[in-house]
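Chapter review. Work through the record for Interferon induced transmembrane protein 5 before attempting the end-of-chapter questions.
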Amino acid sequence: MKPNCADKEEEVSVDLKPASRRVAGEQPSDYLLWSLFNLFFLSGYCFCCLSFSALVFSVKARDQKVTGDLEAAHRYSSKAKCYNILATMWSVVLPLVLIALVITGLITRYIS
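Structure tokens for Interferon induced transmembrane protein 5:
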């Protein structure tokens, strides 16, 4: 004899929130050392505003991590990472492009 399914009704709830990509308990990176490196060594080309912004968001990420608000720490961490990438690219790529233009002679044509 099979049990009747109509007699046993159970409530089933389904969580419709998107699954988080982060692992539970994972600590966010704050990129503080990268921010300090950009500020002190790579900000000589007037792009210190990007380096300083990265440093501010790195400190905010670290503060939020200490207080236990991991969601805010992840937000500030991703902003710090973006600003660090921009500052590094501007500080490395721009001089290389200028050197390439001087070597090929394109800049000296317009200066003379």
